Amino acid sequence: MTETDPSPTTAWRGRLPVWFEAPPEPHGRIAMKIDEHTTPRQLVLRTMFADPRRTVPASFLVIGHQVGEALVPIVMGLAIDRGVATGDATATIGWIAVLGLVFGMLSFCFRFGSRIGFLGMQSIQHELRTRVTERILAPRGMSGLGHTPGMALNIATADVTRLATGVAAAIYPLGQIAAVILCGVVLLWISWPLGVVVLLGAPAILWVLDRAGGPLRARSENEQQLAGEAAGSAADLVAGFRVIKGIGAEAEAARRYRDASGRALTAVVAARRSQGTYLGAMEAITALFVVCVGVAAGVQTVRGALTVGELITVVGLTQFIMAPMSALATNFGQIWVTALASSKRVLSILQAPPAVRAPAEVPAPFAAGPVVVDGVPVGSGRVSIDLPESGVTVLVTDAETRTDLVSILSRSHEPENGSLRVGGTDLFDLDEASALRTIRVAPHDGALFEGSVEDNVAAAIPDDADDREDRLTRALFASVCEDVIDVLPDGLDTSVGEAGKLLSGGQRQRVALARALAAETSTLVLVDPTNAVDSVTETVIAERLATARSGRSTVVFTHSPSLMAVADTIVSISVDGEVRTRNGAAVSQYSSVGAAAEVDR
């Protein structure tokens, strides 16, 4: 056999039906109807039956396993009555062979049923996590109930996992119910009073389980909410650790996390206590039911109504039936309750309305012209600004007004009043691609993705762009990245790490600026793009910025004197929305102190 020949194992696996093993790549998307009218209960049910290609065969195999388990005491009873009791060796050997076949069947069904069911569960989990992630990252954003990044991450991971686990409630209970029914039928055949007790008692216990699950549902939902808040607080704390360290707020941050973690711990303990009480009570009810059936069968045997083989069958079925009855308590109780609580949190993401309305049915074409902000509410007032169509414009304002304007310019939030127009076209009537070609906002944090320096900068340039290399070089030069590349061990090929954490703050900011400058957009909005670099580097960036963006509009939110010195226009916005504009002739006398004074007035 050559090295390129497939091994016998590989060849054999290639002949197995696809649902017997995980494919090398995730299969296509799974159709699940989730809209604004979907309730948490409907989402759990749709999740349970979302992948019938795997859950249906898994359910049949699990039924086979449970039926096989129930057949064991039945076959043993027949072997005793028809072989051992009569002294017939041939019959005894035959029934032992039948028992071996039953064990082989139930073992095969259990192994492959669980395997296929788990694969279906993972497939549905992948689909749900993909949908939640797509919603979190949707360009139109989310409004309504606010989620911190950490909490959104917790919903996309832990809650989606718990919701997908609800698939088990669609697979295993069918086998358990089949086992209970088979036991009831056999007991009816052996003794109809016992059969009636089992067939009427099982639904009664299921009803009790559903009624008793109410308090646990409430506690489980509260536990998951508080645990998500604690996880979100931890994730946000780690993400902002440098800032917290810089302002000396470690003690306060630690106190807040301890408080959130303490609330989560209290909720977890309370929920687990309720869960323990719930499961203990349900198992006690189940055990009491089984004991009653066993005692009744024993009385009939003493009276001669049952044979020895039938007694063994009844005792065996009585012992066996405890397992599926207890499992029903778990699947219809714990798994269902947990999945239902998680479904509410998942829907809080999937049903969150967009922060920005959809574009017109026929989106406006690419817009060109000056940016006009007309009467939009920001800070404590309303602002109207006509931004120049070209050149560098510096906006000097307070933090709250800056945040509101950046949110509107980036289309993260559509103002209730006023408008944002570009060349007469409402920016919110554009589709996402056209809007980015018109106005692109580079946020202050400028997070980098894991990869090399070149990967991060070139992400803003289409792969098929003819001037790809030139744009990359110009962007790196304008952001003064040449000395960054010189000190990095592998130059442009150096990995920046997760979120750029292998770079210093100044290096990370310059790479993010280069990525913004490499993008093709008419109006580029920068938010404090140089506050993490030294003054010499900042001056060089300011000089190169105007050249790099020549003929196009660049809007910079900053108080930097170096950037003001190269600005064609400086606009100061006071806290009440008053706008003052200075042109290039007054730039040389303008300082950051004067700008701050105007903002305060």
TrEMBL record:
It is a multi-pass membrane protein. One of its GO terms (cellular component) is plasma membrane. Residues 58-335 form the ABC transmembrane type-1 domain. Residues 344-601 form the ABC transporter domain. Keywords: ATP-binding, Membrane, Nucleotide-binding, Transmembrane, Transmembrane helix. It is found in: Cell membrane. Gene3D superfamilies: ABC transporter type 1, transmembrane domain, P-loop containing nucleotide triphosphate hydrolases. Its main location: membrane. GO terms for molecular function: ABC-type oligopeptide transporter activity; ATP binding; ATP hydrolysis activity. InterPro entries: ABC1_TM_dom (IPR011527), ABC1_TM_sf (IPR036640), ABC_transporter-like_ATP-bd (IPR003439), ABC_transporter-like_CS (IPR017871), P-loop_NTPase (IPR027417), Type_1_exporter (IPR039421). The chain crosses the membrane at residues 56-80, 92-113, 163-182, 188-209, 278-299. It holds the Pfam family ABC_tran. PANTHER family: ATP-BINDING CASSETTE SUB-FAMILY B MEMBER 10, MITOCHONDRIAL, ATP-DEPENDENT PERMEASE MDL1, MITOCHONDRIAL. This is Putative ABC transporter permease/ATP-binding protein.
